[in-house]
Design a protein that fits this description.
By secondary structure, the protein is mostly beta strands. The protein has one domain: Galactose-binding domain-like (Jelly Rolls). The protein has one helix and 15 strands, in the order E-E-E-E-E-E-H-E-E-E-E-E-E-E-E-E. It has a six-stranded antiparallel β-sheet, with no helix packed on it. A five-stranded antiparallel β-sheet has the order 2-7-13-10-11, with no helix packed on it.
């Protein structure tokens, strides 16, 4: 049975190698390698190896982008320096469709066909498949964008044996192995989401996004009218086998 440990913690210092873990299995972990020039939103596919999972296309941000909407540090969703390097990704963890009160009160299933919640996911193939019984540490840096008026829990990672594809814009039904149990509500600050799990064997693809089956809570970060979305920047993604 998979054993999972979940945690989210603030990072206030540069990232260093963690003793007891092996080489990172995530290629292009900081979104630094690119295919072509970044020119608009919805271009996560310009980051080598990365792509969208559903019809909701996530974003890539770069210091040398030609479009101010996707420039670093100031862009469509606020101003943010990378956790490392010159680039980072960004995605809608949740976009309210106006019926969230019913969901909070237990009157609406977030996976029901009529529930038009919008969420985005990014995906990359690992350098190798995970082995059965292998203990793995997963981590990434997430920052609630300064323009976001909502914040959520459940932002995390699912490692899959196959690439995921969905012709919709809703939440995925998969259960993340590592996710934030707390609402990530620190706007404009990087927070580490990390944990360890025991691999079933064969996991080859890493997917980042919101996974309600591990728990989901949304909170406002402003009083009064708001823009009804939780948008997060993503950087420094790591999958590292733990060395005993």
């Amino acid at each position: 049975m998979r054993k999972t440990c979940l945690k989210a913690m603030a990072v206030a210092m540069p990232l260093f190698a963690v003793p007891g873990v092996a080489q990172n299995l995530v290629p292009n972990a900081g979104f630094e390698a690119m295919k072509g020039r970044l020119t608009a939103l919805d271009q996560i596919g310009r980051a080598a190896g990365w792509g969208a999972v559903t019809l909701g296309h996530a974003d890539l941000f770069s210091r040398d982008a030609t479009d101010p909407d996707v420039r670093v540090p100031t862009n469509r969703y606020g101003s943010m320096e990378p956790a490392e390097g010159e680039r980072y990704a960004g995605l809608f963890a949740w976009k309210d469709d106006g019926r969230f009160d019913a969901f909070q009160e237990g009157r609406q299933d977030p996976f029901a066909p009529g529930w038009n919640v919008y969420a985005e996911y990014i995906q990359v193939e690992l350098d190798r498949s995970l082995e059965a019984g292998e203990l793995v540490r997963v981590s990434f840096q997430a920052a609630l964008a300064p323009q976001s008026d909502r914040a959520v829990s459940g932002l995390g990672v699912y490692c899959s044996p196959v690439a995921l594809h969905g012709d919709h814009r809703r939440f995925l039904r998969e259960k993340a192995q590592v996710a934030s149990a707390a609402v990530l509500d620190r706007r404009g600050a990087w927070t580490e989401v990390s944990g360890t799990f025991e691999a079933d064997g064969g996991e080859r693809y890493l997917i980042i996004g919101t996974f309600p089956y591990v728990g989901f809570e949304a909170a406002r970060t402003v009083e009064g009218p708001d823009n009804h979305y939780a948008y997060y920047y993503i950087d420094a993604v790591r999958v590292e086998p733990v060395i005993n």
